Amino acid sequence: MSEQAQCTIPGIAIVPAIKRRGRVAALGLAEGEAIKAERLSVLELTHEGIPGDRHAGFLRPADVRVPWFKRGEAIQNERQISIVSMEELAVIAANLGIERVEPEWLGANLTVEGLPDFSFIPRGTRLFFPSGAVLAVTDQNAPCRIAGAEVERNLPGSDGLALRFAAAAKRLRGVVAYVDRPGIIAAGEEFSVRVPEQWVWRG
Amino acid sequence: MSEQAQCTIPGIAIVPAIKRRGRVAALGLAEGEAIKAERLSVLELTHEGIPGDRHAGFLRPADVRVPWFKRGEAIQNERQISIVSMEELAVIAANLGIERVEPEWLGANLTVEGLPDFSFIPRGTRLFFPSGAVLAVTDQNAPCRIAGAEVERNLPGSDGLALRFAAAAKRLRGVVAYVDRPGIIAAGEEFSVRVPEQWVWRG
Question: What does the alpha-carbon distance between residue A144 and residue A159 come to, in Å, rounded to a whole number?
């Protein structure tokens, strides 16, 4: 029994939960089939995401990001909301040698500032907004050719940029999230962040 | 620009994705308001979880585990399915000085074996079953007094065990998950496990 009891504390280092604050720099809605988002000053969230946004819904069709599913079949939607950071957009622009990357070119719903290495903010992190709205982070986002093409379309004379975009934006493309509690998010407001306990499992 | 470009590789160690295999040891359904689960040989999953199980639904009422919400308000349901491991149930039993803890006493829907330190399997891990069913892990589960009371109820003469349960089962209580793709799970079958990239963010 003593041998088994040892197993109650596996050799896994647990990093305690962390609290931080961030600020809403911009908000966007990608209507219908549009990639490019329209900039807004307020975003209204329901449990299914942003009404009218192309990523709204409890379910979504599987895409190339989840190659273990058949393309198009209905899976749980953990990509209702796409979030990027001002700081990382600046790094993507620098990597591409261009002046700026606007969040709406990437179809981002929420652009934050004040959170370093934002794309690495862990799964399960909650963002709490003054209205009571809560977002739950599900995964790091991956850059894709489609967003790169949109960046190119917005920059006359930037031919070929789409092909360089994925490499320039790798691990800088922010995160995706779902709406844990509905509410509104307003441009300029601050929000609090709760990062859950973290550890690495090696199995 | 060179200074910014450095930021593209933050000082975060990324552990690559891991593949493992496990086996289904037991299946259970907690009907209506019951805590105790009924043992089954096959579990049918929809996108809302297990039809008839008390944890089914796209949404769930907030409880004591999420103290930042008002008790009872509707939040996204990331606890459709509760999963424990045979190995950890044995450790809980040893910690309590009892012969065994049956998974149905804890209302577990799925009991697995073959995955060490199962309660630490990371958020975002996917379990792939032969039918095509896929579960996505959302969080480590936390022991509660209610489950402890159920264990006590099933063991005549174990008075007071409920109070010791939370400590004995801490970080051994398995994980919770949602149904990513519907399908069936059968007792005895093997499944594959995809643990996503892991890292620790210190912000």
Answer: 17
Is A8 close to B59, i.e. CB distance below 8 A? no
Contacts of B101 (CB under 8 A, 6+ apart): B89, B90, B92, B93, B151
Report angle CA B143, B146, B147 to the nearest 5 degrees. 55
| Residue numbers in chain A where pLDDT is lower than 50 | 1-8
Residue B195 and residue B117: Cα distance in Å, rounded? Answer: 13
Tens of pLDDT, residue by residue over A4-22, are 443 446 789 999 999 999 9
Contacts of B90 in chain A (CB under 8 A): 4
Report the distance separating Cα B82 and Cα B35, nearest Å. Answer: 12
What does the domain layout of chain A look like in residue ranges?
A: 18-199
How far, CA to CA in Å, does B16 sit from each of A63, A93, A201, A203, B4? 22, 27, 11, 13, 25
Q: Which residue of A has its CA nearest to B122?
A: A201
Handedness of CA A182, A184, A188, A189 (dihedral sign): negative
pTM of the predicted model as reported, rounded to 2 decimal places = 0.92
Whole-angstrom distance, CA of residue B82 vs CA of residue B49: 10
Contact B7 A91 (CB under 8 A): yes
Q: Which residues contact A67 (CB under 8 A, 6 or more apart)?
A: none
Residue pLDDT, tens place only, B153-179: 888 777 788 888 989 999 999 999 999
In A, minimum Cα distance to B9 occurs at A171
Question: Can you tell me the ipTM of this complex?
Answer: 0.91
- pLDDT score, position B26: 97
Q: To which residue do tokens 């190659």 refer?
A: A67
- Which DSSP string corresponds to B85-106? EHHHHHHHHHHHTSS---GGGG
Identify the helix (H) or strand (E) that includes residue B59. strand B59-61
Three-class SS of residue A68? Answer: coil
Tokens of B130: 């032969």
Is residue B20 within 8 Å of B115, Cβ to Cβ?
yes
SS3 A54: coil
pLDDT in tens, B44-86: 999 999 999 989 999 999 998 899 999 999 999 999 999 999 9
Q: Does domain A18-199 have CATH number 3.30.70.260?
A: no
Distance separating alpha carbons of residues A126 and B191, to the nearest angstrom: 30
Exposed/middle/buried for residue B13 (C-beta within 10 Å: 0-12, 13-18, 19+)? exposed
- For B129-150, what is each residue's pLDDT tens digit? 999 999 999 999 987 777 888 8
